[in-house]
Amino acid sequence: MPWHRQCSDSSCVNQHAPVFLMAGGGNNQMRDQVLNCLHRCLLLVAGLALALSFAVPAGSEELAKNLFGNRPLPAATAPQSWGFYSKGCFSGGVAIATDGPTWQAMRLSRNRRWGHPAMIDLVERLSRDAVADGWPGLLLGDISQPRGGPMLTGHASHQIGLDADIWFTPMPDRRLSPQQREKMSATSLVDEKSHRVIDRRWTKAHERLLKRAASYPEVERLLVNPGIKQKLCDTVKGDRSWLRKVRPFWGHDYHFHIRIGCQPGSPGCKAQAETAAGDGCDKSLAWWFTEEPWRPNQNPDAPKARDVMTMANLPRECRAVLNAPSPASEAAVTVGPGGGAMRVAAAARAGAVASPAGADVATAPAEPALPVSAYAETPEVGIPLPRPRP
C-alpha cells in the first residue's frame, strides 16, 4: 500500500503502534517502523497545509478590479466621489450616449462611458464648443466604469468619475459601426525617439481644442505628452495663462486626459495638489527631454496597484457603492440622444446634487451595441491608453 494510503486509512499506525506500546517500547525494528509511519503522515499533513496556503491565502479577498469591472450599471444613489483619482469609486454615475451630434464614443465593449454627472456634462459641452471652434467632433475614449473603482486593464486613475480621455483624432464625417470603434487606430502626434511633435500631424485646431478644454473652471488638469506641451510652449501667442493646466506626462500622444476637481456634495473626495504657478514652460518641462524620464524601469515585473488592490484598500464607502441597487435601465441614466438623464446633467451644471434618473424617468430603448463586457479583448494597435513609464 502506498505511504499516503497507509497514512490516510491509519493502517500503518493501527498495525504497529499498539504492539509497540504494549511491548513497553518493543525492539528497534518495531520502533523504526512506527516512527517511519508517523514521519510519513506528518509529511503528508505538511504538504497539504502548504498546498492550501497557496490555494487560499489567509485573509484573501477578491481583487477590487474584478468586482467593479463586473458591475454593468451605476449605483442608483446621489452622485458622490469617494477617495482619490487612483484609489476610489463613485455613485450616482451617468453615461454619455454612444452617439451624439458632436461626438462618438469609442471602444464600446469596455463599458467605460460612465462618470460623475459633472464630468459627463463637461464632455458633452466641450463637444459642442469644439465644433463651434472648428473641430469636426470628439471621439471619446475611456471615462470610467459604471461605479468607478480600479479597472481590469489600462488606467491607474479614472476611478472616481472625474477623468475622461479625448482622442486627438477628429471625429469622421460618418457614423462608425461598433466593430469599427473597436478596431480603429488613434493617431499619435509624437515621435517616439525624439519625443517631439510630428509637425505634419499638428494643427492649430489641436491647440484650439486644448485651449477650449482648459477654459472651463472645473477643469484642473489636462495631461498630454511632453512633446505636445513643448509644442504649445513654442507656439502659443497672446494669453498663455491656460497653459498652466496643461501638464506633461508619459503616454498621452494619442489622446489628452481631462481631469476635473472634486465636486460639491462629495466630502469624501480627496483633492489633488494644485499645479505650480506659471505656464509650465520651464525647467520642469526641460527635464522631460533628458535621459532620466525614459530610462528603463528598474522593476518592470512589479505588479501594478490595480492587480493587488482589494476592497480593503479602498474607502469603506466603496463597499456600499458596490452593493447599491442599479437604476431601472441604462437608458434612464444616459445623457444624449435616446437617454433619460438630462435632468441629472442639468443639475450638475447648476452645482446641485441630484439623484440619478431611475424608475421615475421615462426610459427609451437602449441603443444596439456590442455585448458589454469589461473582459473584452483589447486590440493590439492604436489603443489610446496611457502607456506606463518605460
Write a brief caption for the model.
By secondary structure, this protein is of the alpha/beta class. It is built from 11 helices and 12 strands.
Write up this protein.
Mean pLDDT is 81; it is low at 1-26, 41-59 and 352-390. It contains 11 helices and 12 strands. It is an alpha/beta fold and 390 residues long. Among the domains are: 3-55, no CATH class; 64-190 and 259-287 and 298-349, Muramoyl-pentapeptide Carboxypeptidase, domain 2 (2-Layer Sandwich), CATH 3.30.1380. The longest helix is centred in the first third of the chain and has 28 residues, at 28-55. A hairpin with a 2-residue loop joins strand 1 and strand 2.
Distance between the termini: 57 Å
**CATH topology of the domain at 64-190 and 259-287 and 298-349, what is it called?**
Muramoyl-pentapeptide Carboxypeptidase, domain 2
Provide the structure class: alpha/beta
Which strand order do you get reading across the main beta sheet?
A: 8-11-9-10
**Main beta-sheet annotation:** 4 strands, mixed
CATH architecture of the domain at 64-190 and 259-287 and 298-349: 2-Layer Sandwich
Helix content: 25-40%
Taking pLDDT < 50 over at least 5 consecutive residues as the criterion, the unreliable ranges are 1-26, 41-59, 352-390
The number of distinct helices, counting runs of at least 4 residues, comes to 11
Number of DSSP-assigned strands = 12
Question: How would you spell out the order of helices and strands?
Answer: HHHHEEEEEEHEEHHEHEEHHEH
Strand content: 5-15%
Cα shape: globular
Mean pLDDT: 81
The level-1 CATH class of the domain at 64-190 and 259-287 and 298-349:
Alpha Beta
- Radius of gyration, in angstroms, nearest whole number: 28 Å
